[in-house]
User: Which sequence fits this backbone?
């Protein structure tokens, strides 16, 4: 006779603040730019995914820079919104770090992993914007773009 155990509940995915997703994504872009991330890209996945609203993707030139970008994101977001990532992955090796803020997921890659996983192609049906290095605004994150 086999016994069945109830599945253990998974932690509920929820945000700790009410900062709009587009503002959170803009802060992540700002932090990436401050640490000189390369090819910063915003992907609006609201219409093609039920998991999150935006991906913000950036590349570091070394594992050290990937770590610096990741820390800059965490610090700036916490400082301005009080928000902490719901989940973090990849911080041991700093080749692909994921910071999951529920409505926005930041992906910080080294060049090799970014080229290999090519998230922009994978989410090719979603509106995408490559952010200019000196940009102070991202068109996909404007309120009228919503």
Assistant:
């Amino acid at each position: 006779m086999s016994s069945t155990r109830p599945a253990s509940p998974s932690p509920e995915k929820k945000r700790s603040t009410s900062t709009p997703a587009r503002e959170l994504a803009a802060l992540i872009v700002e932090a990436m730019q401050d640490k000189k991330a390369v090819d910063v890209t915003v992907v609006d996945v609201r219409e093609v995914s039920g998991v999150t609203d935006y991906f913000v993707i950036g590349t570091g030139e070394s594992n050290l820079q990937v770590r610096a970008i990741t820390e800059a994101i965490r610090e700036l977001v916490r400082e301005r919104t009080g928000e902490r990532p719901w989940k973090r992955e990849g911080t041991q090796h700093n080749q692909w770090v994921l910071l999951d803020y529920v409505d926005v997921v930041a992906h910080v890659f080294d060049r090799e992993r970014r080229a290999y996983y090519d998230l922009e192609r994978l989410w090719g049906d979603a509106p995408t914007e490559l952010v200019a290095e000196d940009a102070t605004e991202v068109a996909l994150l404007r309120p009228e773009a919503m």
DSSP finds four helices and six strands in the chain.
